[in-house]
Design brief:
Largest sheet of chain A: 8 strands, mixed
CATH class of the largest domain in chain A: Alpha Beta
Number of helices of chain A: 18
Number of helices of chain B: 12
Mean pLDDT of chain A: 89
CATH topology of one domain in chain B: MetI-like fold
Number of strands of chain B: 0
Radius of gyration of chain B: 24 Å
CATH superfamily of one domain in chain B: MetI-like
Number of domains of chain A: 2
Shape of chain B: globular
Oligomer: heterodimer
Mean pLDDT of chain B: 87
């Protein structure tokens, strides 16, 4: 799932809620309905039937997997198409799903993929290797103008149908992230039912059909998407207890853009499952009506990114000084009320390939060291507590989005850099504007966060090809780093790739291209009438054992 | 009369044209690039360039504008950059929802506002009057967003009488319509009150009372009807504000109308969508004002329509 933080309002809502709470405490309403005290008989086990409603922020733009890169679309397509292979939540290893076997050739360029027999489309027709090829050919065809899927599948040279159930995929160069593309990113790469595509043409995105556990039923524009269970489904991952079709009859995803409203819908029982912001979780933690699941996000949710082309941030000593000056713990407390862990490198421990050595070379809080580095770089403390060099004061802009947590973090950072003589000016922009300004390099520093499941995120952020049009908003281009980032892409052997990925992390930390701040804890609240919902340690929602207690 | 209506509709053309120019250039000149926003993490320079070319975003702005305009006069507002659906289809999916919400909000506002205004005037300078006017001041000052949240918390979360979000049944309409209509209701209450008070001082009211008509007949038959003309004007003006207010209220209540679509389209720099929405809203505003002007004739037979 790909996601950059985009955001909505904030403090108004909290202030508003606070006042509401005050008004209610002042005594105008009945107390909240409490959990029934009477002992209910222990449910005997999973029962089919019922519906589960998931609350989600934004609506997808389309459900055509090749026409979108939206996380909201992935969330639905992942249920419609399902991963080809699954990551076992216990072992972290890939296990079979729609693909029974997958093997790389000796040179790492060719994957032989074997379909599980008996997999059927929602229409009832059997899935064949030719269907997978047709889908991927469509994704790779420039005429499709594929948004995300083609890049995920990698530089494919040729796809060959060996027999009804066997497929050979040959890349131009070995492509490391390929398994990720057919596993967690299966939402984007799943097989399209060719008959449905032919029937609906341009409208396929509102009438999708594939082989997953859930079938598309209805999309009410602006409101909700309803899926119904696929009664034929029996090709799920082996780690689920339920090997048949899903238990609930319906899965509804309801779109509620406003955070406060979404939380109210959870409290009112209108939605069963929803992600809860760290700042809101205390309200729900002790509420007996909900079960809270929690995991560390896959990504670094907040970092200071340095524009390395601008004086003085082109000097690594200044970047290191800032890294030494920020008190990450204080920022975590202020921004997300302590619900996170400090980050010291470009990858969190939750992404495969995370290098433990980052801890040893991390920039610890050390204001003396920070001051020394700035002195060394020629920035001398001037009048008014702001450093100067050649008559120029050390003033840096910090571009942010008007998200609550970011605003608080920015203010703390501003206060933390003041004692070392850096005057920070915070500038807040809405997402579209911010992206343009960062691409143009108008900023000195910016706050940014990402969520991604593969170390390849480093390529997207730090490779020189990503300057201007991509996410390389640190505007850093270095042949040595480029080489590492390319090598990790083209090294499919896990241990070799891990080594390259570690080297890249070391390089990025040593060059202090970011000041990583934190990875946050993600909370999912589930109404207790929904049973056996699970989340993998990497944050993937495991819905296949889920059932509804309809008593 | 029909000539008058035709004239007014013709006059709407330059208005819409002006709005289209304004919105088009405002949208395109603001920083932010739809293609970058759309591709996000998967950006690849070549692919982005291809998409930009495909969407015609590389042409000079005037060229893009005339392409948009020549489509628009044929009823083709283009395709959404984000969903690739027809703008007109996306809007017809949602416009009825916004109309429904705005009409319900306005209906509530008129009912509450006019009744409260008349009551206040009838009990001029008594407790009822003061209480009504305090409520009206509150109604004008309370932000609809905050009011909406408060209503959700009370009626949906605590009392469980009404649903929080969505648009499935009429019960979903109550809270958003009320949140939306409160401001207009408060303004209308004040307008109605002062209008009625002023009319009550007129000679013909004294005459009516002198002939021994009951106070009720004086109030409703003579005073109210005459007091309503400025009120109707305000209704027309408020309707514009109401349509704007739907942006906030729809987002808050997850009401699937044009307001939520407007927000997401602006954030995504979905130019054709934004242009289409503004044009529809502008057209709606023009039509409502025409309806208001036609209502004058009903209320005051001395008003005649001429081109």
């Amino acid at each position: 799932m790909l996601r950059l933080r985009t955001g909505l309002r904030g403090r108004v809502v909290q202030f508003g809620l606070l006042l509401v709470v005050l008004a209610l405490v002042a005594g105008c309403a009945r107390p909240a309905p409490q959990e029934q005290a009477a002992p209910t008989p222990e449910p005997a086990g999973p029962k089919p039937g019922g519906r589960v409603v998931i609350g989600y922020t934004e609506e997808p733009n389309t459900l055509d997997p090749h026409k979108t890169g939206a996380a909201a679309a992935w969330f639905i397509m992942d249920k419609l198409g399902g991963p080809y292979i699954w990551e076992d939540p216990e072992t972290g290893k890939y296990v079979p799903g729609v693909f029974e076997r997958w093997e790389a050739s000796a040179d790492g360029r060719t994957w032989t993929l074997k379909l599980r027999p008996g997999v059927k489309f929602h229409s009832g027709r059997a899935l064949t290797a030719a269907d997978v090829k047709a889908t991927w050919d469509r994704a790779l065809d420039p005429a499709t103008k594929t948004v995300a899927a083609a890049g995920m599948l990698g530089p494919i040279e040729n796809i060959e149908v060996v027999d009804e159930l066997t497929l050979k995929v040959t890349h131009k160069k070995p492509f490391g992230p390929f398994l990720y593309a057919i596993a967690q990113l299966g939402g984007y790469t799943h097989t399209i039912d060719p008959d449905a595509l032919a029937r609906h043409g341009d409208n396929y995105g509102r009438n999708p059909s594939s082989v997953g556990p859930w079938k598309f039923k209805e999309w009410v524009t602006g409101s909700s998407i309803t899926l119904v269970k696929n009664p034929d489904f029996n090709w799920t991952a082996p780690f689920f207890k339920n090997q048949g079709p899903p238990y609930p009859d319906e899965l509804v995803v309801k779109y509620i853009p406003e955070d406060a409203t979404r939380m109210a819908a959870l409290e009112a029982g209108e939605i069963d499952i929803v992600t809860v912001a760290p700042t809101e979780i205390d309200r729900f933690k002790d509420d007996p009506r909900f079960e809270i699941h929690s995991y560390l996000a896959q990504g670094v949710n907040l970092s200071i990114w340095f524009n390395t082309t601008k004086v003085p941030l082109d000097d690594v000593r200044v970047r290191r000084a800032i890294n030494h000056a920020v008190n990450r713990k204080a920022i975590i407390d202020a921004a997300i009320e302590g619900h996170g862990v400090e980050a010291h490198g470009p990858l969190p421990p939750t992404i495969w390939g995370y290098w433990e050595g980052v801890k040893d070379i991390a920039y610890k809080l050390d204001v003396t060291r920070a001051n020394a580095l700035l002195d060394e770089a020629g920035w001398k403390m001037g009048a008014g507590g702001v450093r100067e060099k050649d008559g120029k004061p050390l003033k840096l802009t910090l571009f942010i989005m008007p998200l609550d947590a970011w605003q608080r973090a920015a203010q703390v950072i501003q206060a933390q850099l003041k004692p070392i003589g850096i005057d920070v000016e915070i500038q807040s922009y809405e997402w579209g504007t911010l992206m343009q300004y960062l691409s143009e390099g108008r900023h000195d520093m910016n706050l940014m966060g990402y969520g991604y499941g593969d170390p390849d995120i480093m390529y997207l952020v730090f490779h020189s090809s990503q300057i201007g049009s991509g996410l390389n908003w640190v505007h850093y281009g270095n042949p040595e780093l480029d080489e590492l980032l390319e090598a990790q892409r083209h090294t499919p052997e896990a241990d070799k790739r891990a080594k390259v990925v570690a080297d890249a992390q070391k390089f990025i930390v040593e060059q202090a291209l970011w000041a990583p701040i934190y990875t946050q804890q993600v909370y999912v609240a589930v109404n207790k009438r929904v049973k056996d919902f699970r989340v993998s340690p990497r944050g993937y929602w495991l819905l296949h054992d889920m059932w509804v207690d309809q008593q | 009369m029909s000539q008058y209506i035709a004239g007014r509709l013709l006059a709407a053309i330059p208005v819409l044209l002006g709005i289209s120019v304004f919105v088009f250039f405002m949208a395109h000149l603001a920083p932010g690039d739809p293609v970058t926003i759309m591709l996000g993490l998967q950006a690849d320079a070549e692919q982005m360039e291809r998409l930009r070319e495909e969407l015609g975003l590389n042409d000079p702005l005037p060229v893009q504008y005339f392409r948009f305009l020549s489509g628009a006069v044929r009823g083709d507002l283009g395709r959404s950059l984000k969903s690739n659906r027809l703008v007109t289809q996306e809007i017809t999916d949602r416009f009825p929802r916004t109309i429904q919400l705005a009409a319900a909000g306005m209906g509530l506002a008129i009912t509450i506002g006019v009744i409260a205004g008349v009551v206040a005037a009838a009990f001029h300078r008594r407790l009822t009057d003061t209480a009504t006017m305090i409520l009206a001041i509150l109604g004008v000052s309370v932000p609809s967003f905050w009011l909406g949240l408060m209503l959700i918390y009370l009626f949906s979360v605590r009392l469980r009488w009404l649903p929080v979000a969505g648009a499935d049944t009429w019960r979903h309409l109550v809270l958003p319509a009320f949140s939306l209509g409160v401001l207009a209701a408060a303004i209308l209450a004040r307008m109605t009150r002062s209008g009625v008070l002023e009319v009550l001082r007129q000679d013909y009211v004294r005459t009516a009372r002198a002939k021994g008509l009951s106070e009720r007949v004086v109030l409703y038959r003579h005073a109210l009807k005459n007091a309503l003309i400025p009120v109707v004007t305000i209704v027309g003006l408020q309707f514009g504000g109401l349509l704007g207010g739907t942006v906030i209220i729809e987002t808050l209540f997850a009401w699937p109308g044009l307001g939520t679509l407007a927000i997401t389209s602006i954030l995504a720099r979905d130019f054709p969508m934004v242009q289409g929405i503004v044009l529809y809203l502008a057209l709606g505003y023009v039509l409502v004002n025409l309806a208001v002007d036609l209502t004058y004739g009903y209320l005051d037979p001395r008003i005649r329509y001429r081109r």
